Structures are given as structure tokens and as C-alpha cells.
Structures
1.
Amino acid sequence: MKIVTSDQMRSIDRRAIEEFGIPDLVLMENAGTQVAEVFLERYPDADPEGVLILCGRGNNAGDGLVLARNLLARGLHPRVVLLYPRASYKGNAEHQLQLLERIGGEIVEISAPEAWAEFRRELAGFEVIVDAVLGTGLTKPAESFFEQVFLDANATSAEILSIDIPSGLSGNTAEIPGPAIQADATVALACPKIPHVFPPAEELVGEVYVADIGIPAPCVEAEGVKLNLIDEDSLEGLLTPRERQAHKGIFGHILVIAGSAGKPGAARMVAAGALRAGAGLVTTATPQSATGVVGFQLMEMMTEALPETREGTLSTKAIPRVHKLQEEKTVLTVGPGLSLATETQAAVREIVAKTTLPVILDADGINAFASHPEDLFGKDRPVLLTPHPGEMGRLLKMSAAEVQADRVGICRSFAQEHRCFLVLKGYRTLIGTPEGDVYVNPTGNPGMATGGSGDVLTGVLSGLVGQGLSMLDAARLGVYVHGLAGDLAAEKIGELSLMAGDILKYLPEAFRRLAE
């Protein structure tokens, strides 16, 4: 599903109208009708007299007027408040206003601060307020009259349903330019917009419904939008039933190089994530002193003890053994818990540089290349990196805060420049591709900000790639199902006590839901 700006959406609308011959009035009718469907689904027991629709005078208002007509036809009696003088309405909004007047809709003009000051005493009597005021076209903070309207609406106990985006936000940015509606739900028309997805604006949109208003898919495709929202529909077909004669050998054999003295759990989390994602076999190779602990923690995996330094970290003496272990493996996963020891980092660089397997790098596997990025790329095998902002910053010689300030831009440019796949972890985890596309993951919660969560994700990604999914499909499915498992865990035990092991516990349920 494409995530668009206001400017892109206008271009898409124009293409539908001019190239496909769909009248703009039809698109407005479709929009208002779809909003009505969401309204009735969300508020099936709404008081017929308890609905207020606040209207500006543009297309957003026209959508709200179509909604009013639909609700009137369903037995509700919404009150429509015009926030501009009646005589100023033109075009499609004027047309919709006339239609509503003809069928007896209740319409009140309250276009001056004094009139609003008197009317706001009545706001407490409404159960649902529909925001059809400004839409996506805002380019500067709303004027003071609308600021007061927004503040008063927000102060009520009514549910607020916004059409397209909450008024006061811009469709081109995630910033909040000034006072804005705080919606409980928003119906995004045709495509989600920037403020539906990214903070801080997304904190004002509530639950988001995406409504199909009849714009042909080629209109969106022709816009060349590179920002995408991962949803369950886009993952359909990636999880297929297994054949009855299947055996473990056809579901991939993952080689995990991870762990060290004091950090054996990282290796265990990766291996468990891969197995929960369906990998047929997992071999975990760890420094010798960690091997016994890792093997005891997870009996379903195989273990290999590797030569270690005096500190219990991976030694360069392990390199020949690791090269041998790669035979008949399908994926090489390197990094979690390996440490920043100089010798260990040198070993990682040589192992990764010489492999012909698809490579998944996380944590200290990424850190090993912070001062030698040229050793990582340019080889004839796919590479997937899974950094958090701090690790990303080390690669780029910038702070984590600088990475966070331009997550989408950095994710896109790094993946394009280095021809790799990048999973930039954090709130709204991003996936960057060599072609410059960026995918945004909507699942997950703050409870997942806990040690080992990223290791589980690395394992899930490894297991999916090992079963034959492309790097992109594995990344899209992996980040989504990992976040979904975290959400399922949070529903049961809350966010505060959530641990990485809980994500592992709920991965089967998350996969089952997606497969249904």
C-alpha cells in the first residue's frame, strides 16, 4: 500500500479524472459513502440526534456533506455546521450542499468567532463529531478561528472521526504545524498519507481506516511512489501450506555465528527465531566457552564450538572452521552478542567478505564494518543489514539522533548506494531496497524495546530467507510478524513486563493469523 503526500495525491486524483474520465464528483460521492460505511461500522448504536459534522468549504467539506446525506438515509439526523459563510461555497461542495438542503438536512452556518462562542455550549450534547474542515491541503497553521474550533472539539467527550486527515495537519509532513484536531479515528481516502504513519502527527490520527474511493490502480502506479506501508494484504501468498511429503532439508539450514562469554543468550534467541519462522535446521557456532550454555538453552538446534580469544570472544583462528561449516547451508547470519573485540571484528570481516551465501548482519556483525564499510559491499551475494539507529550511526559516522531525524531518507539512500537491503529498526521499522523503495512496518509496541528483541527478529529473517523467500519478501514478512507477535504478547501480559522470550512465544500465533 502506497504512502503518499498531498501533492502526490492531487496528481493521482488528476490522473483519474483526466486520463480515466472519472468525474471528480464521482470520487467525492465514493469518498463520502465510504466514510459513511466506516461510521456505521464504528458507531452502530450512535444516537440519531447526537452526530455533528463540522464542514469547511473545500473537497473535504464536500465529503462530509455526502456523509451527512448517507447518514440521513440510514435514519440518523446529523447536524451540519458550516464554518464559512454559506455564499462562499462553490463547485462540488456547493453541489453537495444543495443536495443535502433538498432532502431536508439540518444545516447551520457558524462562520464567526462570536457565533461559535455561543454554539460551543451545545458541543457536550454530541456523541460523535465528524471533522470535515480542512483536509490534506493545509500549507500553514490554521487561522485563529479554526484553532478555537479544534480546541473546543478536542475538549469534549465526543468521539472524533476525521475525514482524510485531522484538520490542522499537513498531508506533506509528519510535523504538527499548530493546533489540530485530536481524532479517535481517521478515514484515509484512497491512500494513507504521511501523517497517518509517522510521528508526531500520527499521534493525532487515532485508528486509521483506508477507504477505496474508486481510483484505478494505474493512477497510483504511474506516480512512482517509493514509500510503502506493509499490510496483511501485501503479504498474502508468502506463507503457503507445506506439502505432505516435505522434510526438514527443504526448509533451509541456517548457520548462525553469534554469542560470546557473557552473551550466550543472543545466539539462542537468533536460533529460536529462525526455527519459529520455519527453518528446517539451524546450526549455531559460538566461541567454545559459550557453546554448552547455548546448547542447553535450545535443544532443537545444533551447535559448533569455535576457537576463542582469552576474553571468550570469536578468534580469527575460527575462520577456517566457519568456512567449512558453510557447506550445504542456505544463509549465513552473523553478529548478535559477538562483542566489539578487535580480533573478533577482524574475524567477522573476513568471514563475511569470503562467503558466497546470502548474508544477514546484525549488532556486532554490523559494528565490525563501521570502520571498514568497503569490505562489506560489492560482492556477488545479497546482504541484509538490521541496525538500530546507534549501529546505523556508526556506519555513517553520525549520531543516532541524526539518524532518527531523517530515518526514511537515510534508509533509502544507504540501501540504494550500497545495493543492499536494510532493516532500520525502531518505532515504525523501515526496510530499504537497492531500488530506492522504502517499506514501513505498522506493527510493534514500546514493550518490545527490550534486550533480545532484535536477536529474535534476526532469527526470523534468517529462517524466512533460508526457506527461499527473497530478501525483500523475507524482510517485509519478518518485520511485520515480529511486531505482530509483540503486539499479541502485549495484549496478554502488557508492555511493561514484555521480554524477548514472549515475542518468541507468540510467533506461532502471529504466523497462524497471517496464514489464515
2.
Amino acid sequence: MTQNELDFSFKARYSRLGEINDDTEQVWFVIHGYGQLAHYFIRKFALLENKNTCIIAPEGLSRFYVNELKEGGFRNSDRVGATWMTKENRQMDIDNYLTYLDALYEKEIGKRKIKSITLLGFSQGAATVSRWAVNGRIHFDRLILWAGVFPTDMDFDRGKELLQAKEMIQVYGTNDPFINPERLNELESFNTKLNIRPRRVVFDGKHEIDEATLRNLI
């Protein structure tokens, strides 16, 4: 048995709040976490929208039913979520979503001169947005990792060269079960490896996008 690969045309969706036009000064690309969908995730950023600001939410290329099948083939709910990658053929997943994100950037931004472009990744999306920031064919001004960390296999040499010139913010809740002392130590070691000193924002909350905290990042 041989395992083979092929290239083919692929359609993917994304969500957007606002329009990009001559009045646009700020664009936010917001990358969802595991098991979320873009058109729900983007609602958490509605407070950012105005005539000068556009928010764009890409969506993971693999979707699945969040709840497992019960006996008899039933689920408690038909809720669907998306993921950016799994451990199975992970590099292909990474290559595919980087191609998708670059294509999205080219379609929405292209050669337009935008005053400020923010990349925000939540949870699993933090690793996704980090890879895109370092490996993508894009320009951005600010990178926000929210309730997540850099991926261990990121190109840290390239990241060190690129990210020192960017505004870096790391956000997490005090009661986030995924951000424990070990995870914080890992995050700090990555910061040292990249030779960056991000602004750290901590809020009283869990694994979530906190509205008041988000408002303070505008």
C-alpha cells in the first residue's frame, strides 16, 4: 500500500464584520479555537466594528460534529465545530491552512494601505496565527495570543527576526484551566527564545474572550 498526495482546487469560507474601503484604518484577523466556527466566533468581536474597522474571521478547514455518537447512532446535539489541524498528517494541514490564510489576506487586503493590521489567535488559534505571522506572505502590526501559546515547532529563528519589530500582546484569564503554571513557564521560555517582551494582560475569567479586556485592546 502506498500513500499519495495530489493538489486540487478547494473552496473555503470565512466571516467578516464591516467592509474594507477607503475609510478603513484597522483590520483585525481573528483566528478561532478548536471546535468553534467563524460565524459564531466573530460575534465576540462585534464591539470593534465601526466605519474605520473591519474584522475578518477565517475558519479551520476541517469540520466535525462536536458531540460523539451515542448508542443507536444518536447525538445529544448536532453542533458542528472546526479545527485547524490534528496530529494526523499535521504538516499537510498546516501547509493547507497557511495557503488558505495567505489567499484570504490577498483577497481582502492585497496592496491596500491599512494603518493597522492586528492578528489575534484564541486557544488553538494562537498556534495557527503564530505560524501564519512567521511563515505567511502578509504584513501586520500587532500579534495577540489569547489563551494560547506559540507552537513548539515554530521557526523561532525567523520569528526572532520578524516579531521583535511587532507589538506583541499575550492575554489569559486567571481561571483558565488550560493556562497553568507549566504552560506559563513554557510561554515565557518561548518569549526568551524569540527575544521578545510582550505586554501581558490578565483578566478575571476563564477560557474565553472577555469583552472588557478586548475593549481595552482597541
3.
Amino acid sequence: MTRLTIVTGLSGSGKSVALHTLEDEGFFCIDNLPSFLLTEFIDKLLASGSELYSKLAIGVDMRSERASADNLLKLLKELRARQDAEVEVLFLDTDRTRLVTRFSETRRKHPLSSQDLPLISAIDEEARLLEPVKDDAELVIDTSALNLHELRNLIRTYILGKTQVGLALTFQSFGFKHGTPASTDFMFDVRCLPNPHWEPDLRRFTGREKPIIKFLQEQPDVEDMFTEIRNYLQRWLPLFEAENRAYLTVSVGCTGGRHRSVYLVDRLADHFAQERNNVSRRHREL
């Protein structure tokens, strides 16, 4: 059965990077295909019977969908009903402020911008048009805080999650003062724990360094928090796997995202890596 990945999302959010990454993983990739050509194009490729098309990734160009995303949603429903392809939609999202910065730095024109529609309005309009597609996607990745290397690695993680036994489990730390992650399955708030930030001799270190690790290891509440999060995940992860989930993200947040959440994410990732093959971690604020 052919694996078909539809790549879409906001302009400037990293769709080209995603397609290049998938191409490196052996996918046959096509970019900027108008949605009304999807079905005919896929029919012709699959009818060829070529092994070259056993893994397809198609970047859908939404510039022809200014009125609504209804046509694309209808097409996706039809594709998912096919017996000859396993279909997934990858949607790339990005913070509006970050998108404005990216377009300003690259001096590229937004696909929907015009004399009557300035950049920020074009970004908002595209986000409005694509909201139903985002809600329908199997996977949403927020690329706001990701560099090129991190985005490629994250996409590879999810690809492996679809091809290896067991789900791909990602742990990420973050700081609430920088905003919550846009894409996560579980979110744990650990701001109630003792904060090394208020210890003058510890503030400059991160949760990956020995002084912070020692401080947090000595706090009973920190150990209790780790134990309860670990036990919760051990209890419920098998049920998610039973539902054929390919990937799952666990986010742990403290105030600044540099001490408590980092320490706990490293401990959780280390623990689950002992019993699972596809475990990764990411520290958003480091």
C-alpha cells in the first residue's frame, strides 16, 4: 500500500523544508500542487505500479483556495477512503509575529498579499482559510521556535514513528512565560516546584547542569512529581498505542523553561528510553 503524506500549512512555516526532508527519506515529492489536481495526479502515479511511488509526499498549494478550504477537505476525505493508499496530513503552523519576521528578512512576497492586503492581513487571512484543514490534520507541527535542523529531526522522528514498531514519544520542556506549545498531547505544569531561579548561585545554570540537578534531586516534591508523571504515562501510553497512534508529545513547563522542566524532561526521556526504541527530547528555551 502506498503511503501518501499531504504537506500543507501557513506560507513561511517550513513546507519546503518538510518536503526536502521527506525526499531524503525516500519519498517521491511534488510541491505546490493545486488541490483540484490531487486525485487525478495520484491516480496516474499509482496506476503505474512503480515502486518509486510507494511513498508519496505532496505539498498542496492553497493559493487557489481563497474562498474556503472545503474543496481540499472533501478531497482529503475521498483520499482517506482509498484502499490503495494510507493517507496522512502534515500541517505546519507558525506564530504570526514569527511569520512577519521571516517574510521581512527574506523579502519574499506572501502568496495572498497585494496592494489591498498588507502582509499581516494576508497572514491572518491564510490562517483563517486553513483553520479547518489544521483541525483535520493527523499531525500539526508548530515551527515557531524550531531551527532548520530541529524541524528536520522532528519530521524524521514522526516518519520513524510510522514505520517502526511502537509510537514515537517526544518529551519537550518549555517556559510558560514564552507561551505554551501549539502542538502537544500531554502538558504538565511544574511551576509549583521549588525554583532554582531564586537561588543567586544557581540562576545561571540550566536543568542539564550538575548544580541544578543536585538542587532538584534534594527536593521531595520534585521526586514525587517525576514519579507521578512517569506512572501516569506508563498507565496510559499502551492505550494510545492500541489506538494505532504513531507519535505522542509530552510537554513539561515551568516559568522560564530552563531549570525544573528541563530536569524533569531529561529524567522522563532517560527513563522511557530504557524501555522504548523511539524516544526523543527537545528543550525549547535552551
4.
Amino acid sequence: MRKVLKTIDSISEWGGKCARWFILVMILVILFEVFMRDVMNAPTFWGYEITIAFGASLYVIGYAYAESKHAHVRVDVFYIHMSPRGRAITDSICGFIFFLPAVGLVAFFTYDKMMWSWGVMEKSIEGYWYPPWYPLRTMLFIGWTMLLLQGLAHLSRSLYHAIKGRAYGP
């Protein structure tokens, strides 16, 4: 079990490192677009779609990384007053009731949309260069699946802590 959890954590860490590069690409594309539009008076026809694709990829790949670092928002009014075991019990209950159904459904529907997108070779209709949209749909599925896996890892650690009374660790 430790090896599986460590692998999931490594995948999320890798996703966080990829997200850093997505930020850099977005910044460079936006800077180039602004330069071409405002200085050269020749805006690009591809900057908008590229920025959207990398921005969406950045967010969904970053979800699992944020989950691995426990960086998602919690309602601390109650949570900070709980014991570590009480937090683990709360995380376990909320994980089963809210997290798994919600993220599982989103991952399922993004898979369905990704398969459809590849099947019809979906293209963006926002601009006039019609870039392929199926790579973005694939990134959305990968990101939500990574979040689901990281959530399962978090849930299994919380369940262990709730049942055994001590944190799951090396």
C-alpha cells in the first residue's frame, strides 16, 4: 500500500512541476500577444486559444498537486478545534460523501467528452484558425483523474488514522 500511495504522490508532484512550465508558456504567449498587438499592430490569431488551453491545463493538473499538499480550502471554524483523529474522521466522512462522488463523476464525464472529442477530431470554433481541442480534453481528463487518485490516497491515509488512531507514515 505504501508503494501505491508513494506512486500517487509522485505523480501529483510531477504534475505540480508540469504546471510550473504551463505558467511560463502562458506568460510568454501573453507577452508575445501584447507585444504584437500593441507595438507591432499585428495581433496573433492563435494567442487566445493557446492561453485558454494552457490555463485550463494548469488548473486541472494543479488540482492533484494542491490536494497532495492539503492546500484546498476547508472550513476552519470547526476543523482547527478538532483533534488529529477527529480531522481524519471528518476527512474520511466528507471524502466518501462529497469528494469521491463529485470528482468521480467529473472524471467520468471528462473521459466521455475526451473520447467524443477524439472521435470527431473536435476543433475550437472561437477563432478562425480552428485549433484541435482534443488535446485539451485529454488534459482535462488526466487532471481530474490525477485529482481522483490523490483524493483516494488522502482518503486511505485518513481512514487509517481514523481507525488506528495514528497517522499513516513511513
